[in-house]
Design goal:
2 copies of one chain form a homodimer. Chain A has 347 residues and is of the alpha/beta class. Chain A contains 11 helices and 9 strands. At the A-B interface, helix 2, helix 7, helix 11 and strand 8 of A face helix 2, helix 7, helix 11 and strand 8 of B.
Chain lengths: 347, 347
């Protein structure tokens, strides 16, 4: 199929590391939806790459970009020939997460929705994008079921998802702490803490300075949701590992496909296993669903990107890692850069 | 808790790399079930380690080993103090796998159960242990949904799970091949192939000799279920990668916690990412459920191990990897050793 090869050649000549499989993923996604944002979510290709692929495919006569994305008859033929893909079929009951909420966690969900309803909006300054309340409770659930919360010391590093609030509301951890740089979130969390009299330690500081000595090698589990440059991933997860007490402690964090190519995933996995004595125990697809955020749309050059999406389209895979020896490197990471070529489009 | 420390010290002095968290996992498991086998499955500690831990815990007065495993009052106290763990709560609807079978796959399940009902037993000679028919169909389902079967060339390396039969019955792959060393399985698969007129290429050979030139760099996806010494894991998965066509091709395989400690998991993950240009895209807990097999029970020295389990207790996590560049190393692995300290007990 000459179209595929010429589109790939063009994009690569402009420095985009886009693969044939990426191109198939994009084509397939828009054979299933005409909504730009849903297509990005389905495709599992970085959003900035999707935009470039769509523009090239339009130039090649394969699709039309308007307020929606429409494959041309030639596009449909190409899709059937190259990308005979079935739709995903995530389990409706658990949203593909593989676990069920028990009654106690369902109750927690209801209370959490109430206390978090007037939460601060996501802002660009800290690369924020928060998850649905359901996602927050499922994160608590999986860590609880894997034995990383009850009777354990837990820390949340950066918490626009309010995981620390949900964990302390559950009331079975030995200790819960949260570190956050955004004053608005700090105030919001402090306010809930006061109202509900939660056992929660709240710290305002910037993770770029690393983990302070007194928080190092102290916790049994950490949660974080890193910005997705390779260095930011390593910095946030590295800070998390720095907080862990030792062998058998665990970390939970999200990595997306919408901001990170599989090339970036690979570089991250290799560095993670090389630089730390950890093992990856779980990688669960689209565990976290993010609420479509409100910044970054003004400067775009194709129509469907110019408006805030009215669907949630952004997901992350949940990683769980476990530490296999006692260690704290006390690393200081320096200024964390939030943007790279794969995630810059809405930044 | 001195019990924990002294038990750990004793076991380590005998060369078992058992961690405090392992010990917690075992204690927790037997606070939830008195069945030896179920406890091994829940604990996620290698079965040979579980046996040693139980014997030491019995010596320390923490539990009693008879036909069942009973915690003493002291054991219950220790469990509450050290291992405040909630039970796992896998989603009942999907068995924790995160995906749903559509109608076509449910129909495939029914036909597959029928044709596979008189399948050969698992034998020790080839380290066999086959999965439930449900698991086989879910393996097909996830690969189908991820775009790795329809219109693709698929190979199954070692197939006591009859995945190749299910895929060729589905009828949407471009090509299906199976490699198997066991003459009984070859005959069984050939027989189904003839009866149902399946488009399936069947090859009998030993993977220790590596992948023959004509099968290298040819397929879009492989499935394998390796024996679990570190070298066997690398050899089977390496053979799989050798069959792959290039960028965007994928591999599916299982790794257990019942035969492999997290230390072995880590060594395997590191080598996999170092030796091959692949990325791990999914690690799904207990995706595969194995039918309790009939060999290995005669020589054991504690009562509950001397009889074949009447429950399924053995699970593997499903790994999916994706290849990021075109490559075939054509590696020859030499004789594959099936046994190490972590998986030897029922070998």
């Amino acid at each position: 199929m000459q179209v595929v090869e010429s589109v790939l050649m063009e994009l690569r000549s402009r420095g985009f590391n886009i693969t044939e499989r990426d191109l198939c993923r994009v084509l397939r996604a828009y054979s299933m939806t005409d909504d730009f944002w849903k297509g990005v979510g389905i495709s599992e290709v970085p959003v900035s790459y999707v935009v470039e692929v769509l523009k090239e495919l339009q130039r090649a006569g394969v699709l039309q970009i308007g307020d929606t994305i429409e494959l041309t008859p030639e596009g449909h033929k190409l899709c059937i020939k190259k990308c005979v893909l079935y739709p995903e079929n995530p389990c409706e009951s658990c949203g593909g997460r593989g676990i069920e909420l028990d009654d106690r966690l369902k109750e927690l969900y209801r209370s959490f929705v109430e206390v978090s309803s007037n939460r601060p909006d996501a802002v660009k300054e800290y690369d924020q994008a928060y998850v649905t309340p359901e996602t927050t409770i499922y994160r608590v659930a999986i860590a609880l079921y894997r034995g990383d919360i009850a009777g354990r010391k837990v820390v949340v590093l950066g918490d626009d998802d309010l995981v620390s609030v949900a964990i302390s509301m559950l009331g079975v951890a030995e200790e819960v702490a949260v570190v956050e740089v955004d004053k608005r979130l700090i105030d919001f969390i402090q306010d809930i803490k006061r109202k509900l009299d939660l056992p929660l330690s709240v710290f305002q500081f910037d993770l770029s300075d690393g983990i302070p000595r007194e928080m190092r090698a102290h916790f049994d589990a950490f949660f974080t949701d890193p910005p997705e440059t390779e260095d930011a991933l390593m910095a946030f997860v590295g800070c998390g590992i720095d907080t862990l007490r030792g062998e058998g402690s665990a970390g939970y964090f999200g990595v997306t496909r919408q901001e990170s190519s599989l090339f970036k995933w690979r570089r991250f996995q290799k560095r993670l296993l090389k630089e730390y004595d950890v093992v990856i125990t779980d990688i669960i697809k689209n565990f976290s669903e993010y609420v479509a955020w409100g910044y970054g749309y003004e400067k775009q050059d194709i129509p469907p990107l110019r408006e805030k999406p009215d669907v949630n389209w952004f997901y992350s895979y949940l990683y769980r890692i476990e530490l296999l020896s006692d260690m704290s490197k006390g690393v200081r990471y320096g200024r964390i850069v939030y943007q790279d070529r794969e995630n810059s489009i809405l930044g």
